[in-house]
Structure formats: structure tokens, C-alpha cells
Design goal:
It contains 29 helices and 11 strands. The protein has 722 residues and is mostly helical. The chain is extended and about 110 Å long.
Length: 722
Amino acid sequence: MAPEVAKPRDRQLLLIFRRFAVTNAMPLKKSTSGGRRELNRWKQKWAARDAVDRDDPAMLPPTVRGQQALFEMKRAEMSIDTVRRILARPLEGYEEAATEVAAFAGEYGLSHAWVRQVADMIRLALAIRDADGHDLVPEEVLDELPQYWTPVGKILKRAGMLQARQTPAPPRRRRPPKSGYVPTPPPPLPPSPRSCRDCDAWMTGVHKHRCHACQKWHGKHKNRPLGQCERCHREGLPLKAGHCRGCCLHVNINGLAAEKEPFTQLWFADPFSAGLRVLRGQLGYELSSKHPYRDRQVAERRAARIPLVPQPAFPGQEPLFAMRRDWTPLLDINRRHERLPELTEPAQQLADEFVTMMRDQQWDLDQRVAHLRPLVILLSWLGADAPIREADVVELSRQDVNLSARRVCQFLKARGMLVEDPALHRDRDYEWIEHALAGLPEQIAMEVRAWVTVLRGQGRREHEPRSYYNIRSYFTVFKPTLESWIADGVTSLREITNDDIKKAVGARQGNPARSLHVALRSLFRALKQEQLIFRNPTRGVVVGGVQTLPPSLPSDVLAGLLDRSNSTAGRLALALVAVHALPPHEIRHLLTADLDLAKGHLIVRRGLRRHTVHLEEFTQTIATEWLTERHRRWPGSTNPYLLVSQQSAMHSEHPPVTATMLKRTFRELNASMSQLRQDRILHEARKSADPLRLMRLFGISDTTAMRYITAAHPERTSKIPR
């Protein structure tokens, strides 16, 4: 066709060179991986050329070092654009940090792109440091970085430019999901037990030939040549000192003598693998994995497939392995409204007795459910033929806030069906003493422990033991002095002299000085008795007695105390203290049998002596109201004490009310029991001025009576000057 007649059309022109294959033309953005890498390098060079003048003074301007900001304003969100505006800014310590970045990347085999991006984040962190006027980079600055905050923190710490965090770290920003599609969890893989190819350990899994530990062993020793183990003579394994991983583990556990043994102990591999999760689910252990959703679905399907069989305990049968039971799977089954195993006849009788006891004691519905559920679960799985461990009852109640264990333990203990756990009944004061002794040097701790042994009546000479409460009181007094001696270089109490005792006691005045003298005298007397020291340094040290006069309470504190009390028991205790001046420990131990409302008498037991309190009409009326309320609330209570609480009324051991209960009652009234008692005796002393009347009325000693007379009438007891 002639050219002048042909129509114009699009045509791609090609350049053809000999010895080169014909290729298609591609735009720059669709280049191959190598071309993209060349493009990125080209862009970096142009960015570096344009970055010569990139130092925006308005972006993170540096301030004077050490200058505290007057107002702390929230900084705008940092981004990669912020880094581009400070690329040319000279920053102190950036070259050292860049060197650490290169070394860090070389150790972990990271790319050049990672090095460049982390270096930009370090530049941003140093700029924020200069803007805040710090010498080091605070760890809180890492929270403002848009990315790479973890490696930046590690590199700055290695370079010595990171300051420890002063405030708790906020929650990390979560990456947004790539899509809203949530796939259905895959069905659980059927367990297929097999042996590891390297160590012969039992494991499960379809696609694995080596256990997780052997896979890590291969990765750790990948540069070593494979060879034959000198012990098990297996070939093709990475060796360490001529042994494979299985032989190394066997020798490390069983000793060097096991190196010549012709066998290897097998074990379970991958304790968190799928196969062992099935085994732990059957045995009732807690599931643990990185995929809780998948594990929950697997556990529910297998629980529906595997029938739950109770494991009753037999009398006289000792456990082969002492393990803590985990009751979480049973509570999950109960929440799904699945039936528990049927109770045996003895277990049903025990549960019926508990229900009868709750009905007789008039428990409310919530308390019945909270105590009956754990008892039924324990009896359905452990039976009633053997005693139940107290640790199981407590552990079961800790799994759910709606379960209670205290009264269940009391019920089982009263019927001989409870094995008590000593760890749950340790004295708090004993725990405090042991914790304090653990913080002392070994020699001094041994000597103080000998003093504790003597006070407990277990020394070389037998005597009445003291309580841990009294021992703790003494220990609390001389512990600061003991710590000061240790700080001065004392390694044993044998080094303490008489001058040290006088110096320690002389540093205090009044009652603190006398208390320290009494405590140190008790300590060194016990050590001299046990022949741990040669001489008692407290001999010859005398501290004069301190005469304290009882104070008087203001009238505004006493006005309306009974009207402010909300409980009948609190009003009775208040009347016994404010009217009859009974001490707190005697009020806690008053017996119901010692109260005679017909005669208006109350017997107070003081050792072998008895003090009779004549009740006036007011106190007698309050006592009658309390007995009526007690019988209404706890008709089946057999507690012999006059005052009971919600916890002690139905307790199987019949304890008295705690001192905390009385303190809480008087704390609400803004008054102290000891102050009210002293004010009552002082008021009577001001009216009568007769010490014999005080002794008969309140049952106090002659010395105490004279102290109150002296406080009430100081003009009658003053000495006439000669």
C-alpha cells in the first residue's frame, strides 16, 4: 500500500542489538527486584543531596541542658516527615549511636534498609532529647517514636545514652488488621505420636520430624559438620564435644557416670505441643498455649467426646506424686450446666448433714449456695471415704469469687474429714520474725534466732513460753539498733560492749529508752544463758522509770457516743469500757455463763482471781438487748463467749472476737478504748479521792490506784519543802 494512502496507527518501536535477546519495555515502577533496589539507591542519593539544607529550626528546637520546662505541652505525633526536617541537624552522640546500629545489624544479619530506618529513629530520639534539655535519652521518649522503639532502646542502652524509665509504660500501639476477615479456626489435628529423629523423644505432630529443642539445636550448630556420636554411635547429627543432644542431656541430668551407660533415658518432648495438651486436658491441668481461642475450642470438643470419670480417694492410700490439683476445668464444665458425677452414699449423707446445719443456723440463700457448691464438687470427685485436703478446698474457692471455703473447712474438721495444711495456719507474727531474720547477716541471725528459741521455752532451761506477738514486740524495738550496729561493721553480738548499750539507750528518752533497755536486756540474757556470749553487756545499765499520768478526754468526745454506735454489741462494749472501766482483752474473753441478769452481776476472770462487776440498770438493759439479738441471729451458736461476730458465732473452734472488731467499732466513734477506760477511773478518783474505793470498784492494784489519785489531786500528794 502506498504510504500516502495508509492510515496512521500506534506502533511500539524496538531497538534490536545483535547477541542480545529481545525484551519488552517496562515502566520504571514495574521493575524487577534488582531494578527496584537500584531505584531505591538512586532515590537515597538524591535525598541525601537535598538534605544538605534540611534543618528546620521550628521543628524540635533544642533548649538549654538541665533547664526545667515551665509548662509541659503535649507534643505532636512524630512521623517520618519529622525526621526529614532534621536530617542535617548536628546531634551529639549520633555518630556513636550509628556505629552501634551497624554493629547490631551485623550481629543479627539485618539489611541496609533496616539500618537506615533505625538510624532515622535514633536521630529523632536524640532531637527530642535536646528539645527537652536532657543529658540522656529518657526511656519515655521511645513511646513517641512511630516505629522501631524496641531496637532503638536496646541500641541506646548499649551506647550508654538511655535513661531508665520514671513512669510506667503505656500500652503498645496495636497494628491495624490487614482485613476484616476472621477465618474460622482450623479443626484440631489428630494426635499422632512419634519419636524425634535426633533424640528419640516422644512427641506428637504430623508435619514435624524433630522436636522443638532439636530444631533449635540444629540452628545453633548449623556451622558444625555432622558426624557420629561417640556414645550412641548414631550418624548424621550435629555434635558438641563428640556427643549429640540426647546424650548431652542424659549425661547432664544423670552425671558423668552415665556416659558409659549403653542406654539413654527417654522423655516427653515439646511440653506445650498438641498431643500433651490433650493429655493435660484429660488429667485436669490448665491449658496454656499461644492460641487460647483454638485451645478452648479443642478442649470443649474433646471434653464432649471424652467422658469425665471421678477419681475418688481411698482411705489409707498415699499419693505417689504430691501435686497441686487444678479445678479450673471442672468449674468450666459446671458453667456449661453439665452434670457432675453422682454422689456416693457416704458423700450424700455428708452433704445432707451440711444442708441441715445451714438450715438450723438460718443461713441466707447466698451463703448456702457459696458453701454448698464447693462441698458438692469435692465430694463428687474425691468421695467421702477418705479425708479431704484443706489445700483442695482453698484452691477450689480461689477459682471463683462465688465460692467460700472457710465454713466448709470448719464443717469437715468437726467430722474428722479434713487434712489441715500447715502452710495455711502459720502465725503472722512468726512469718514477720522469719522475714526479719532473713535480712540479717548469717552470724547475727543465728544469735537472734537462739534468743527466739529461748523465749519460746525451748532453750537450755525450761520455762513458760512467750507468744510470737510478744517476741515480735521486743524484736521491733531493738531492730533499728541492731541495724545501726551492723552498719558500723559489727559481725557478731559478742562484739557489743557496755558502752554500746549505754550509747544506744542514751540516744532515746522516756518510755522509748526504757523499752529499748528491756528488749536488749532480754536479748543478751538469753544469749548468756545459751553460752553464745561471754559477758552480758546490759549489766549495770539502769534506766529510770517514767511516771506518766493518765490524761482526761474532752467532753465533746464523750457526748453522744452511744447514739453514734450502730450495733448492739458495740454499745455493750462501750458501756463496759466507759462505765465499768474493763480493759479490751477482758471484754473479748467474757463468758455468757458469767453474766447473771437476775442479780445484775458480771464475773470477770483474771487468772485465779474473780472480779465482780455490779451492773446498773443502763448496762443491764443493753446486755439484755444483746442476748436477745444474739439468740435471734444465731440460735444454734454454742460459742461460750458473751460477744460473738458473724465469723466466730458458728465457728467450730469457738474463738473469741478479734481485737480488730472492737477497734473498728471504736474507730467509728473517734475514741480509743484505753482512753475511755482511763477517763472513767480518773473521773471516779476526782470525786472520791479514796484509793481503796478505786481498787474495789475497778479491781485495779494499789499502785495504779495511787497514780490516778495523784493525777486527780496533785495538791494532796505534793511534798512539803523543808
